[in-house]
Amino acid sequence: MIPKELVLEIRDRNDIENVIGGFVDLKRTGTNVKGLCPFHNEKTPSFTVFPATQSFYCFGCGAGGDVITFIMKYQNLDYADAVEYLAARAGINIPASSFGGEEKGPSRKRILEMNVCAARYFREVLFSPEGKVGLDYLMNKRKLSPAIIKRFGLGFAPDSPFSMLDYMRKQGYTDEELRSGYFEAISQKTNKPYSIFRNRVMFPIINTAGSVIAFGGRVMDDSKPKYLNTNDTPAYKKGKNLFALNYAKDLCGERLILCEGYMDVIALHAAGFGFAVAGLGTALTSDQARLIAKYTKKVILTYDSDEAGQRATERAISLLSEVGVDVKVLVVEGAKDPDEFIGKFGSAAFERLLDGSRSKFSYRADAVIKKHDISTPDGKLAASKELCAVVAAASSSVERDLNLDEAARLLSIDKKILAEDVERARRKLLKEEKNKLSLEAYTSARGIGDKINPDIAKNLGAASAESAILGLLLAFPEHRAAVASGKIELSPDDFVTAFGRRVFEAMMKLEGSELGFDITLLGEDFSPDEMGRIQRMIRERMMLTENGSAVLTASIDTLKFERAIQTAKDSGDKLAAFEAKRRMIMENKKRIHK
Predict the structure, then answer these.
(1) Could you confirm whether domain 245-356 is CATH 3.40.1360.10?
(2) Would you state the pLDDT for residue 593?
(3) What number does CATH give the domain 454-593?
(4) Chain centroid offset of residue 81 CA
(5) Full-model pTM
(6) How many angstroms separate the CA atoms of 87 and 362, rounded?
């Protein structure tokens, strides 16, 4: 719906290196720049930005595309919203008529505007008679000052199914928009709309750009769930954001405290520990771990000590370690949580408690020792086996040696004896990892489980030829022109995979348009993951020295022969399939002799 000329102008006004450099630490390597991929966990940079072609590609996970694709994938936006985001960045106005159409729901911008309006409403209610129960909870039970309540924009949703909706409608928001923003739902009993948030203290969730992207709400009675959070919307993905990071990002360079809930974070900020954040109703995700790694290299976990908290701690340790973050675990003694500890002993005592946080190995070792009775031979043997496996999992030899010292001390076993068991455990781990990589390489080579192009596994030869053809057409204008003019014969019917056919048809449609082909314009019809595959086909061709018309025609011939063979097989005509295969072999031999 957005004019294609305007899309191209917006792209050209947003230099890809500058845009991505705002999210990823990039370092120049020749004419290109590289950094750690923001879309998967890695320790060695494989994410490359190509300024010359205004494109990016990760050689590790396959993410790729242009600046619009990057914003779509990084900010979780659809195509139109990503273009709008970049337009705002470049100071370009998109005509309102461009966003017309019955199928498109509320834009990200509209949701964000609605969230601000809702936050104001919840705040007004908190300081009204309707919000007395919420204000009593915050100020009397949780001992929060008016300044902290204001700083975090806390509010209250009244115990009414309609009040909030009536207010928002008067501000010009429709029921469709309220449902998209997760403020309204439809009752299964009455088939009428009602407010999702009722009788709850409301916590606005604000991103690092200062936008209100969602809400969390704590109920004031025994209703379930105790905490209710906004579901994913056009402006929000809960697995990709953190509560209070908008404040903590400027204070967490040395360390960051990761808490379980909103009130834990607010209490710590109120006590002077403004480098605390929390998840958003879900266990820590890999996206959140990578987000944390952008701002700090040391995290202190303050999850509960119950079984669920221990599972959450283990998951957080694994995910944060994968992105190179040093993880420590806070053990609170004499209080149920940091808030109560600070209330009893003061901020200075909590500072000392933070300094004494346990290493991840010490935390895990303590759990193992508590699980087994190491005063008995069987208990010590079981504990030794578990601790050796933990030691062996560390990638750093220095870390393994330090952990081995601690394990030997805890078990009162000679370090050299334990070292032998650790080495055996490590060999086992490396063998399992090698087997896993081999299996992944095999399934990838066979196209098994390919989510972007599932048809690959049906005909590897044809899929390989398609990839070569599309790479050549995407990268070289002269090849596109030759096919578009009919000089080289190729049609959508020649393609075996649905994905390859879609790419070819979209490319030829643009080639014949007034503007001509531009890879950016494919983004409207292809997902970010599909754009990554398209970029991979280009990169694979650009790494080869032979990309002339002879390679193109040979690849087309191979594709047509493979299709003929497949058609014959599908019809059950084995003789025709054999003859087609024989012709393909003979044609290949002729080319080689030429």
Answers:
(1) yes
(2) 46
(3) 1.10.860
(4) 18
(5) 0.78
(6) 50
* Average pLDDT for runs of 10 along the chain of length 594: 90 96 93 94 92 95 96 88 91 74 70 96 97 96 95 96 96 95 93 95 94 95 91 89 95 94 94 95 88 92 87 93 92 87 92 94 92 93 93 88 93 92 91 74 63 87 92 96 95 94 96 93 94 95 92 92 77 60 57 48
Tokens of 150: 């204001």
3-state secondary structure of 243: strand
Q: How far apart are CA 313 and CA 327, in angstroms?
A: 10
C-alpha span between 414 and 115 (Å, rounded): 61
Q: Where are the alpha helices (DSSP H) in 98-162?
A: 108-126, 132-136, 146-151
What's the fold here for domain 4-99? Answer: DNA Primase; Chain A (3.90.580)
pLDDT at 592: 45
Q: What is the DSSP letter of 199?
A: S
DSSP string, 490-514: --GGG--SHHHHHHHHHHHHHHTSS
Radius of gyration of the chain (CA): 29
Report d(CA 494, CA 390) in Å as an integer. Answer: 54
Length of the chain measured in residues? 594
Q: Which amino acid is at 176?
A: E
Burial class (CB in 10 A: 0-12, 13-18, 19+), 492: exposed
Q: How far apart are CA 499 and CA 562, in angstroms?
A: 17
Q: What is the pLDDT of residue 451?
A: 85
User: Taking the domain 108-236, which CATH number applies?
Assistant: 3.90.980.10
Cβ-contact 16, 66 below 8 angstroms: yes
Enter the tokens of residue 327: 């993880």
Cα pseudo-dihedral 378, 381, 382, 383, rounded to 10: 120
Burial of 567 (0-12, 13-18, 19+ CB in 10 A): middle
Q: For residue 38, say if its preceding peptide bond is cis, omega within 30 degrees of 0.
A: no
- Contact (CB, 8 A) for 205 and 216: yes
Angle of helix 67-75 relative to helix 79-90, nearest 10 degrees, comes to 110
Give the integer Cα–Cα distance in Å for 306 and 99: 49
Q: Is there a contact between 153 and 238 (Cβ–Cβ < 8 Å)?
A: no
d(CA 243, CA 241): 7
Q: What is the pLDDT of residue 585?
A: 54
Give the C-alpha separation, 340 to 267, whole Å.
9
In this structure, what DSSP letter does residue 515 have? S
